[in-house]
Amino acid sequence: MMHGADRHAQWLRGVLDLCVLAALTEKERYGYDLSQRLEKAGLGRLKGGTLYPVLGRLEQAGLVTARWQVGEQGPSRKYYDLTPVGRDRLVAEAGTWIEFAAHVSALLEPARRAGGGEHEPEPIP
Amino acid sequence: MNRNQYLEELRHRLSFRGASRRRAKDIVAEVRSHLDESGEDPVEAFGKPDEYAERALRGYRWPTVRFLTLMLCAVVGGSLVMRSVSALRRGQAIASVPNSELLLWVVFSLAVSVSVLPVVHRRLGNSRWHVPIFILGAVLTVTVSNYLGSSVLGEHTLVRAGSWVMFMAGIGLVAATGLVWLVWRHLSGVSRSG
């Protein structure tokens, strides 16, 4: 049976594309900015080797657009933005995920309470 | 492996895996940008160059010119082999293959070799001896095989075609053999340095 980091990584793998799309609804972002935003949201520190291939696939699928912006002082950055198709996909699949997560929570919560795990989970910032 | 070595190695691996020049440049630039921002160690952040190249290209479905050429080469080559086998099964020593078909295969073979060789050549350190060795090897092999073909084998030659076509086929064959050797060396390098 998996533990801690392995299980977390597996969950994240299934939902990372949606999290990326969600972070892009706020504003267009470049890769490093996105990784910081997702870390701040409680998803943990995402490695570049995990994040950028997902961005590439979203771009390939037409869910995000990308443009390079030359840095005035710092490095050039590739900015990603949500497309209307990406927004529609996010709305549809976010609903599916929330429903699924609610079913899982409903199943796990009684078991957690029965096992004495009464403490509330830490809030995600 | 420092940052520049990592980026250079990544570019090679992307090219070798069939990424177009533009795509490889884009991926490398994005990795460079991330490393500049984060100051992270490249291997820690992205994994070994070959692993990241594989991950970055996973899901990209557009075929490269190299891949298409390789497929065409395999189809035409397969047709030639089938025809020769079929002729042998009928008890014929000679399978006549139209020059145009053989030439087509040679052209595709050469196109594949030419498109892949520079990638592997760069990967192996740009030795100036690679190309001259191939050319010399090709000319020697073709000359010897042409002599043997006409004076020793004679009418028992399996495929009958014009001598200039056979000459081109010989060059294609030597280039393909060289390519296999280079790819093998390249893959040995991959397993060593990832």
Structural overview:
Chain A has helices spanning 4-26, 31-43, 48-60, 84-114, and strands at 29-30, 64-69, 77-82. Chain A is mostly helical and 125 residues long. Chain A starts with a helix and ends in an 11-residue tail after the last helix. The model of chain A has no long low-confidence stretch (mean pLDDT 87). In chain B, 78% of the residues lie in helices and 2% in strands. Chain B is built from 8 helices and 2 strands. In chain B, strands 1-2 form a two-stranded parallel ribbon. Classes of the chains: A mainly alpha (125), B mainly alpha (194). The interface between A and B is medium-sized, with 17 and 25 residues.
Short account of what is shown:
The complex is a heterodimer of chains A (125) and B (194). Chain A is mostly helical and 125 residues long.
Structural class of chain B: mainly alpha
Shape of chain A: elongated
What is the share of helical residues of chain A? 55-70%
Question: Would you tell me the overall average pLDDT of chain B?
Answer: 69
What about the largest sheet of chain A? 3 strands, antiparallel
Which protein chains make the most extensive interface, counting residues with beta carbons within 8 Å of the other chain's beta carbons?
A-B, 17 and 25 residues
Overall radius of gyration of chain B: 21 Å
Q: In terms of per-residue confidence, which ranges of chain A show pLDDT below 50 for 5 or more consecutive residues?
A: none
What is the element string of chain B, with H for helices and E for strands? Answer: HHHHHEHHEH
Task: List low-pLDDT spans of chain B.
Answer: none
Strand order, sheet with most strands of chain A: 1-3-2
Structural class by sheet pairing and helices of chain A:
mainly alpha
**Beta strands of chain B, count:** 2
Order of helices and strands of chain A: HEHHEEH
Strand content of chain B: under 5%
